[in-house]
Every structure is written in C-alpha cells, then in structure tokens.
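A student in our group prepared the protein record below, which I am reviewing. Here is the record exactly as it was handed to me.
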Amino acid sequence: MNKFVKIALAVALAAVMCVSAVADAVVPSIAQKTDISLDSYTVYDSNGTEVGDDSTMGSIVVTPYAERINLSTDKLEDIEAAFEQLYGLSDLTELLSHLPEDTVALYLFDISAYDEAAAYISAGGTADVVLECDLGNYSEVIVLHNYEDDKWEEKDSEVLSSTKVMTTINSCSPYVIAVTNTVTVTESVEGGIVDNSVDVSGVASSSTMPYVFGGVACILIAGVLLVVANRKKEN
C-alpha cells in the first residue's frame, strides 16, 4: 500500500472517529443541558386571584433532564418517557401538528411544586413561572407541556428577554422550551432597531452534521478500496 493510500485511509478513519465529537460540539443535546432554572413565580387560585409569590408560597422547583436523578421515582419515569418521545424527531410538528415547521426542543425539564404552591395548583389554581435559560436569538420560543402519557399541549408564554421566558402552568410534569430554526438578528441603527430574520433551517445541526462527516468518510474509504482493488488487478 503506497503512501497516498495510507494517508487517505488515515483521513477517512479520523473523520469517522470525530463524528460523535462533532455532534456534541455543534448543538448540545437537551440531555446535557443544565443551564435552566426558576427565576420567580406567582401563584393564583382557581378563580384567577393572585394569592402569593416565591417569597410566600413555599417552593416551585425546576429540574433539567440532565439532573433527573434528583427527581422522585414517578417523576423520573415521566421525564424519561417525555425524552423518549422527543428523541430522534426531526421537528416537533410530529408531536403537535400546528407548530411551525423546524420547531426543535431546546430544553426538557420537570416542574414540581411543594407546600402552599402545590396545594393551590392541585385545587385548580395556576402559577406564572419565569424561567431563566439561554434563548439565543431564535425568532419564536414555544413552551410545551407533556400533561399525560404521549399527550402534549402548547402553553401560553411570553419571552421577557434573551434569558427569560414566562409561562403559565396548571400541573407539575415535564415541560419543553422549543424554538424554531429561524434566527432573528437585531442590529442597532440610527433611530431604532432593525430586525433581520435569517433562515437557518437548512443549516446542518447536531442531528445532521454527523451524517455529513460520516458520508465524506465513507466516500474516502470506498475510493481507497477501489484504488487498491484496481492495482491488484493490474498486478
């Protein structure tokens, strides 16, 4: 095997070995993310009357999927089931058909309530929770709720900043912060702000980049093997 063949094989094998590393580097999986937390919350009774907030109502806890070991057995089973439903989806329209195309999960987490907050929610009340996380510059942020088995619903939500989103909950179970693959880029100009939307739906993400590299590697290996086979025939 000449020097060229050895080099080509080495390049191809290196490309294959780096596939998983590339997948992690492009977009961290929801299974790895821990940077979501509860900023504040306000609790309402079943009539919609405010009854307290995070300073008076016990506690509401947000647990990202990556820290699911801290959940109770039942809640652990629920969030694992939610993850299984999300895993491998090209976009979330497979869960809820009305969502925009190219909607993907950014965070998966559990919300639990205790003490007075839990009592009001269990009795038909609600809570406005402000979640703190990295929302980037995505043009649309959506909060989804896995309220029963494989049933999902979209919750009312409001983006407060690039790191905060508020949503209203009426039960404690798995939730997802989802985004569309259209990034909104804002730039300051004299007299105001210009909003330039950039469609990145065709850009390879963590789910597609490994296949791109893997495909290149396979082509290289096939080419090397073909060269070797032809030279053997000539000899």
